[in-house]
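Dear Dr. H.,

I hope your travels went smoothly. While you were away I took the liberty of generating a structure for the chain from your last submission, since the lab meeting agenda had it listed for discussion. I wanted you to have the full record in hand beforehand rather than looking at slides cold. The sequence, exactly as received, is reproduced here:
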Amino acid sequence: MKILPYEKIAACFKPWSEVYLDVAKTLINTIQTDELNVIHIGSTSAQVGGKGIIDLSVLYSAGSIDLAVARLSLLGFQDQISDKPFPAKRPRKDGGIIFDDRKYFVHVHVIEKDCDEHVKQVQYREYMLADSKARQAYEQSKKQILAEGIIEQEAYGKRKSVFVKDVLQTIE
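The corresponding predicted structure, in token form, is as follows:
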């Protein structure tokens, strides 16, 4: 699989599709090693419509962040394009792939296995998968943000993070 250059796209709403699971599985199989686990997170993992960007977390053992970053670089993932990128101690690498003749963009979060963020990512995904009303509410929240004309990716992300934070407070 060839990792393509990432493109910062305008926020939009695409209904959730099962193909997101197939894309994530293919990426996981490509990235994962004996030393690195990879999980599918974010809206595409929780059957929630949105931009359709595939979010993954590469989970490394304590002290092995350099191994994770090197693996992603070797595969062709690039540094995050952002005015406020994630810090080097918790980076995000980005890329694109062609899957079944369609381009998908990917955000790969590099986090330590079993840290609080890892645990919260899994809890959030499981909560959303178990609650169809929460999924519908999140989709409505995203559509409302777009209806307000907020399509710049980072501004959109900041606005929708309010919903995610509310859910995380509910499940803690």
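Two observations you may find useful: Helices lie at 19-31, 42-45, 65-75, 116-130, 132-147, 153-171. The chain has a mean pLDDT of 96.

With kind regards,
E. W.
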